[in-house]
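Lecture notes, continued. The same structure-token format from the folding unit now serves as the input rather than the output. Read the line below as a description of shape only.
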């Protein structure tokens, strides 16, 4: 589970901090019981966390992974990497993204950026060392697929919608608790404040199931894009190679794990909060696609 602890945690933290700040400043009371105004109010703050995460995503990625951007290739491997990404980007109809390598032993890669024409694609040193050129190209094609599909923007917008309704229903719940249980008819009391924060945390966790479902679906779409760009056999081969590396610890910052090709897996209820479907499911989907 690769994105939960930063992307979702960042958005939940923004909601909680915004709630506390607005309560302390007395702004919250002005929303009253006008549900239209309340919804608009929540939308402004609900999208704040996801949009902030989106716009600083490249900067966060470079800092957190220590990615070194290739500006002037120093080796034939770097030259090949730039040429391959340029070719895949041209075929996908997007502008050439920044290309980088990050120092990690595990085989992994990620793509991020606030729009498909201003993106970053990076691969780990371990992937370059242990994967064949065909497998590396398939991994790059998968990441280019994420960029071309606009997954970073779409995921952020979905998170913004989820944040909005979490804040909206949490405030309705807080108002109900404050009035029905604490019998407070004079503005918002402590019962409203506590109940709202509690509801935001619970609803935020439940709503993340929706976000993670979308995240898993976009992995299938990125695999399809990778198959179109690099060939189905190469894409399946890269996923099988990733299966062979599942014993290797994944040292990827949580903010980027949803946008990486190799995500940790859980079973049972925890599987509802996974950013990636199983590699077996992804390989079978490609096989059925032909």
């Amino acid at each position: 589970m690769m994105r939960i602890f930063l992307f979702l945690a960042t958005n939940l933290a923004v909601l909680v901090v915004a709630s506390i700040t607005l309560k302390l400043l007395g702004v919250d009371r002005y929303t009253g019981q006008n549900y239209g105004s309340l919804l608009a109010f929540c939308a402004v703050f609900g999208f704040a966390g996801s949009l902030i995460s989106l716009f600083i995503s490249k900067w966060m990625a470079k800092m957190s992974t220590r990615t070194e951007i290739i500006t002037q290739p120093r080796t034939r491997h770097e030259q090949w990497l730039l040429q391959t990404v340029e070719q895949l980007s041209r075929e996908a109809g997007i502008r050439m993204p920044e290309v980088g390598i990050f120092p990690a032993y595990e085989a992994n890669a990620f793509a991020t950026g606030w729009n498909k024409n201003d993106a970053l694609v990076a691969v780990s040193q371990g992937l370059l060392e242990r994967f064949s050129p065909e497998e590396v190209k398939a991994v790059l094609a998968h990441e280019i697929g994420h960029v071309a599909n606009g997954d970073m923007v779409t995921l952020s917008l979905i998170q913004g919608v989820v944040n909005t309704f979490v804040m909206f229903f949490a405030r309705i719940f807080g108002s109900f608790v404050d009035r029905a249980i604490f019998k407070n008819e004079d503005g918002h009391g402590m019962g409203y404040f506590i109940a709202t924060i509690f509801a935001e945390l619970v609803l935020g966790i439940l709503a993340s199931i929706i976000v993670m479902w979308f995240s898993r679906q976009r992995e299938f779409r990125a695999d399809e894009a990778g198959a179109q760009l690099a060939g189905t056999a190469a894409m399946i081969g890269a996923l099988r190679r990733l299966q062979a590396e599942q014993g290797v610890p994944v040292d990827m910052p949580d903010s980027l794990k949803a946008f990486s090709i190799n995500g940790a897996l859980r079973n049972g209820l925890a599987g509802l909060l996974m950013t990636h479907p199983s590699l077996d499911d992804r390989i079978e989907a490609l096989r059925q696609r032909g």
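Point for the exam: The longest strand covers residues 119-124.
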